[in-house]
Write a sequence for this structure.
């Protein structure tokens, strides 16, 4: 009996020691401690032996990251709260080449994009071998290619499908939005309805997610153009995120035909692009709406560390690259400031970096222990972060759901389950399902 109790006592003593050291460090240090350790709660998925887990397992260790200035910002990652949720991961299909996004049709079939430039259809968990025709040519290089797929809110009536993709070549390229009408296995009447200006010269930071708002307009995220030494007009291109005459490093708001709403926050500003909805972003690849509150949420890649979760509002400046927890890939500081009056702080920072992509609120009943939680995919993290928010929209806890592959997208399906796309040359679609107690 003693040999079972003794390790537990030692573990408790270690946790007390860590807590004391953390409290002491917080009193004397004003720098950011990298990382946050949270447990893996499921193993790699398998079609023959699905991984299982329980979402209520507590974190075994945390590190708090100190900050100077700013409010409503969670850097320390506490364990996620809420009811226990037993689950398993089931591989629905594989054979996808770097899948990027998914959207469900009214009949239950699913559209999936592959970054090299194919739009695929999945029916009854089976991938149709023939891609959908009519997709515009894409510049598939580096981070570029065919990215988001999204359906018009009235798709059943108009059959409109929206795609984001990179267009151009290595020396001059941009993110575009196209709209087409889905008829059987073909997109017809495909038109480019929006493009990010100015053009850029790198194969980095295209964005780009689409999120529809209740008024029928859509938000589209656009990356800042790339890392140093990528430049534009003699200056680092990432500084375009602060330029209101540029669409780089922004979220734009559009009507469903690509025109610009008259009530956009900068529509009456002669020195700003009227399409801009928010700015100061680096590279948003997670964008979603909380249907209970109407709040817009985004996950944003940092450079070396400093990935962010933001609650985004019209007209606000989110700071990049004036304030950031990121560092240069070479190791130096991008900015000595972490916060500044007039700039909006992130709700949480993943200082060790998860490379966030894909974001969704879970509103279903099948995984009832997770209802109301926010789910953020991670490429480098190879996991999904389940995020608890309080009534004010502040992060109160997180927990890691290990996928053990690069997570490109995570969505709630019409069946009330969670679906995951993995960014691999043999990419998978994984379904997260409840397990009976």
């Amino acid at each position: 009996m003693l040999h079972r109790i003794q390790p537990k006592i030692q573990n408790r003593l270690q946790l007390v020691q860590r807590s004391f050291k953390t409290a002491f460090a917080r009193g004397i240090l004003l720098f950011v401690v990298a990382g946050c350790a949270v447990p893996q709660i499921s193993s790699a998925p398998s079609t023959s032996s699905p991984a299982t887990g329980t979402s209520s397992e507590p974190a075994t260790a945390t590190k708090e990251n100190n900050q100077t200035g700013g409010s409503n910002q969670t850097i320390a990652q506490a364990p996620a709260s809420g009811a226990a949720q037993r689950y398993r991961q089931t591989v629905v299909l594989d054979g996808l080449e770097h899948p990027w996004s998914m959207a469900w049709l009214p009949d239950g079939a699913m559209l999936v994009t592959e970054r090299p430039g194919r739009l695929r259809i999945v029916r009854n968990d089976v991938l149709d071998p023939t891609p959908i025709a009519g997709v515009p040519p894409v510049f598939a290089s580096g981070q570029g290619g065919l990215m988001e797929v999204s359906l018009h809110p009235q798709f059943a009536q108009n059959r409109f499908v929206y795609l984001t993709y990179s267009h151009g070549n290595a020396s001059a390229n941009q993110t575009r939005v196209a709209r087409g009408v889905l008829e059987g296995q073909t997109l017809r009447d495909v038109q480019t309805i929006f493009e990010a200006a100015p053009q850029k010269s790198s194969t980095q930071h295209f964005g780009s997610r689409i999120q529809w708002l209740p008024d029928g307009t859509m938000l589209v995220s656009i990356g800042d153009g790339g890392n140093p030494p990528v430049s534009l007009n003699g200056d680092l291109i990432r500084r375009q995120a602060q330029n209101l005459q540029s669409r780089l490093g922004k979220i734009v708001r559009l009507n469903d035909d690509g025109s610009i709403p008259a009530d956009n926050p900068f529509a009456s500003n002669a020195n700003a692009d009227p399409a801009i909805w928010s700015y100061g972003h680096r590279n948003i690849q997670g964008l979603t709406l909380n249907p209970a509150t109407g709040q817009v949420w985004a996950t944003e890649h940092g450079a070396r560390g400093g990935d962010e979760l933001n609650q985004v509002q019209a007209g606000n400046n989110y700071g990049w690259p004036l304030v950031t927890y990121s560092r240069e890939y070479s190791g130096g500081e991008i900015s000595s400031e972490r916060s500044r009056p007039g700039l909006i702080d992130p709700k949480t920072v993943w200082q060790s970096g998860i490379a966030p992509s894909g974001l969704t609120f879970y509103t279903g009943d099948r995984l009832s222990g997770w209802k109301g939680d926010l789910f953020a995919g991670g490429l480098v993290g190879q996991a999904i972060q389940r995020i608890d928010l309080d009534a004010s929209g502040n992060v109160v806890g997180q927990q890691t759901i290990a996928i053990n592959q690069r997570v490109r997208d995570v969505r709630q399906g019409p069946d009330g389950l969670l679906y995951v796309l993995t960014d691999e040359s043999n990419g998978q679609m994984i379904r997260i399902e409840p397990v009976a107690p």
User: Anything to note?
Assistant: The two ends are 29 Å apart (CA to CA). The CA atoms of residues 42 and 53 lie 5 Å apart.
